[in-house]
Amino acid sequence: GIKGFDFVREIEGGIEIGALATIRSIETSPLIKQRFPLLGEAAGKIGSVQVRNRATIGGNLCNAAPSAETAPSLICLQAEAEVIESSGIRRVPLEEFFVGPGQHVFKGSGLMRRIIVPFTPKNCGGVYFKHSPRKAMDLAVVGVGCVLTLDAEKKRCLNSRIVLGAVAPIPLRARKAEAVVNGREITEKEIEDAGVVASQEANPITDVRGSAEYRREMVMIFVKRGIREALNLIRSQR
């Protein structure tokens, strides 16, 4: 039955989250807290507890709002969506799932079945920040997810994924900002540069929640903070 799609469980090489898993179950899942804390954080920033008890991960993603709270962190974690269509079942990297505001890759009719999130490598850590006028219940004016993987010495950045929410028609990977830190020892200069570059990559609109200029400024601040905090997280790991 439909109830069968509300799981959060470990599979080989990662976890799977049923499309009907509630946001609250993701927020409180011990497995997610242990393996993907930034996803739990992002889930906890959606609406109120009442909303999170009713809202599902599939609903949050299939609504395809540019401000969808779970999208940046899942894209940072290289998650895939498994979708059922008349032609069969296929997997789509979540990064390719969104095609415009309120639009996703389903051609005509389709169902999201589950999300697959691969386990992160060693020396990997990430954070998700949301900025909204009020602490809860508001849509994000800006959301930023940042995941870094460092080398064995925890010095050089092997890989980064920086994803911006609510500042473009779809959740946006800030690839130019990633390029600033990839392959380098991240100093204060790289952090500053990455923030500036990410704010230039953002393509925000002005709406009732914030002006485009304000959103760009928040992207710069959050990307810098995200890189710093991800570095601190990784370096504090045993």
**Strand portion:** 25-35%
How are the strands ordered across the major sheet?
1-2-7-3-4
Put simply, the count of helices is 10
Q: Helix/strand/pairing class, anyone?
A: alpha+beta
Q: What keyword list fits this structure?
A:
alpha+beta; 5-stranded antiparallel β-sheet; 26% strand
Entry summary:
The protein is an alpha+beta fold and 238 residues long. It is 37% helix and 26% strand.
SSE order and pairing:
Layout: E1 8-11, E2 14-18, H1 23-28, H2 30-35, H3 37-44, H4 49-54, H5 57-62, H6 70-76, E3 80-85, E4 88-93, H7 94-97, E5 98-100, E6 103-104, E7 111-118, E8 124-131, E9 142-150, E10 157-165, E11 172-173, H8 175-181, H9 188-201, H10 212-236
Antiparallel strand pairs: 1-2, 2-7, 3-4, 3-7, 5-6, 8-9, 9-10, 10-11
Helix pairs in contact: 8-9, 9-10
Explain what the structure shows.
The chain is an alpha+beta fold. Helices cover 37% and strands 26% of the residues. It is built from ten helices and eleven strands. It has helices spanning 23-28, 30-35, 37-44, 49-54, 57-62, 70-76, 94-97, 175-181, 188-201, 212-236; strands spanning 8-11, 14-18, 80-85, 88-93, 98-100, 103-104, 111-118, 124-131, 142-150, 157-165, 172-173. The radius of gyration is 17 Å and the shape is globular.
